[in-house]
Write a structure and sequence with these properties.
This protein is about 25% helix and about 35% strand. By secondary structure, it is α+β, with helices and mostly antiparallel strands. Strands 1, 2, 3, 4 and 5 form a 5-stranded antiparallel sheet that branches.
Length: about 160
């Protein structure tokens, strides 16, 4: 499995329009291409000063499948003109990683303690953010009084209700 990671930034004023464009046109357009080995895409968003950072993580069976999406120069960013118009800047190259472990979130949420035969301390801290319960894996996401800030839950797993 290959993970393709890309970063783009927009102004706070353009952030909602950019996210809507991704969800309503760009992501559906990618899915409709029927790319062999394409497994899906995730979108992450956080506020960074006066900008909003977006991260896309795409999943493919192989580098050949990535080439089916991006072309022979598979590391080149694929950013349609309508997206470029809303972005203030973006990475010209995407990063690609081999997925070496994939632990289902449900196992962590249940307090799973064994990882590759090594005992691990429980890492979960439960909290509520905007009515959504999450298990935070990183204390940077929690502010005074156990409240998450507007930016991001670093390494959080959203728990089912």
């Amino acid at each position: 499995m290959i993970s393709r990671v890309w970063y783009g930034w927009t102004s706070r004023e353009n952030a909602d329009a950019y996210e809507a464009l991704l969800k309503s046109e760009i992501f559906t357009g990618i899915a409709s291409r029927g790319i062999a080995g394409y497994k899906g895409i995730q979108l992450f968003r956080r506020y960074v000063g006066e900008e909003v950072e977006f991260v896309t993580v795409m999943w493919f069976d192989s580098v050949d499948a990535v080439r089916g999406f991006a072309g022979e120069d598979y590391e080149a960013a694929v950013v349609p003109p309508q997206a470029r118009a809303l972005l203030s800047r973006f990475d010209e190259r995407s990063q690609h990683y081999e997925v070496r472990a994939d632990l289902p979130a449900a196992r962590w949420a249940a307090g799973h303690r064994e990882l590759a035969g090594v005992e691990a301390q429980p890492l979960l801290r439960r909290l509520r953010v905007g009515g959504v319960e999450a298990a935070g894996l990183d204390e940077r996401s929690v502010g005074p009084g156990g409240r998450a800030d507007e930016n991001v839950l670093h390494g959080a797993i959203v728990l089912p209700r």
